[in-house]
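Following up on my earlier thread - several people asked me to post the actual chain instead of describing it. Fair enough. Here it is, all 398 residues.
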Amino acid sequence: MKRTIAILLCGSMMLSMVACGKSQTVEKKTKKEAETTASADELGEANVKDFEYKALDYVTLGDYKDLEVTVTGDYEPSEDGLRDYVNNTMIAGAENAYYEDESLTEVQEDSIVNVDYTGYKDGEAFDGGAATDVLLDIAGNCTPGGGSYIEGFTSGLVGAKVGETVDCDVTFPEDYGNADLAGAAVVFRFKVNYICAAANYDGLTDDYVSKVFGYDTVEEFLGTAEEAYKADLEDQHNYDIRSAVIKQVTENATVDSYPEDVVAARTDDYIRLLMKQFGVKTVAELNAAWAADATMSGATVEEYRAYVEERVKTNLNTEMVFLAICEQEGIELSDADYKEYIKEYMNAEGVSEDDLALNYGSTVEVGSLYIHKLALANQGVKLCVDSAKITEEKPAEE
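Reply from S.P.:
Thanks for posting it. Predicted structure:
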């Protein structure tokens, strides 16, 4: 639930290979049709000058200082809040949210079971049909919170006792992806290692927190959990204030028009990032690779470009408003402020400053310029937040 990420202004244009719903509405085209739709020109290197603009040329500012802003939330720590945090954030996010319960000895229809298994076809173990130390959700026929198995995979375990080995007859579906197993009747041999109980705040043990989280005692674990819980409450509080101020400031302002050269340059640069990912050098080659990629669901590059252009404009809306405030107020971005702004991203992603820039642009120079603009815009956000008069309200009780 960390909310300290500073690029709060807008969704980043970092590379995404999913057409974000656009492919749901475009007409499917053949590879040949897709190739003839797009330009065959190379985009070439990005020119950093194409990304520059003066925000006040495009934005009419409204009130942005001394705003009266109301946020709704419960930001005071409590025992119930800590319990929910441990259960829903720490335990639910752990690799093993279950522990062995020695009091459970027989598999029930709703059990979570740890097993080893091997699949046999015509008496011979088949490739990919074996695993050890696997958790199975019997009722869901799946791993807890994970994908489902073929029909009937877990049902034969009901009634088995811990330590027993059980053979279960299973038939693969006719349309199974592996032709050797499609429609085949097989036997899965399960060894029931133990039956689990779901971990929860009230049932924590020293053994559990040691195995899953690496703490010696429950007390030590809960001490760390409480610190994280309070920090998250503070992060949420700050995030809610910033979000409310950003919303009010942008609603008070008017974006009169967009810097079309910047829109085109950012759109082209996003396509350059796609070209890098596909390993091609021209838009025509990208169209061919795109059309052949089943994950694109039939959208051409040109159709996707139109979607990206709209997203660029959406991102620019907020960016331009707060850059305009910086221009109006004479706010500049110091090198120290910029380094502080990007530090969390670099640490979180384990990348260098140059590598971070390449997530936002096709060159280090272009990516750095984009991040600098967002960092400066956040200085405008800070000005507005610091001057705002905040009223806090508790959420309505359900």
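The radius of gyration is 28 Å. That should answer part of your original question.
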